[in-house]
Amino acid sequence: MIRDTRCVLRDARTILCVLALVGIATGDRVAAQLPTPNVNDGSALLRECGAALRAADGGSVLESNSVERGMQMGQCLGLVSAVWHTHEIMVETFDSRPAFCPSASISAGQMARVVHAFLTQHPDDLHRWDAELILQAFGDAYPCR
Asked: What pLDDT sits at residue 104?
């Protein structure tokens, strides 16, 4: 009888540990569904694309650290290009429905201008995912007819 009780207690502890781990994993997954404020949301993208456009236009430098400035520029230009080209691959290779329909390819700098203008015109949306906002900006600039 004592042996059976130990097995039951050990099994109960194991089950509780598994349930706790599942709860922790599920809780983290829910939190991971939202963008991190000022990291991968519209506010960060506006700041990053602003740095890229100021550099391209010879505007004032707001970032005191040149490495930080370079990272922001690279983040903007890389992300807008990645979204553009991933969309192109999804449409051409996997027959996905297009979210935007450009008449020609544009440079990463032009993509950044489109996105920056969109973000400036939609300040209430800056809490949303950066990639989602990029797609919406391209959709507004290059609608499918």
From this structure: 93
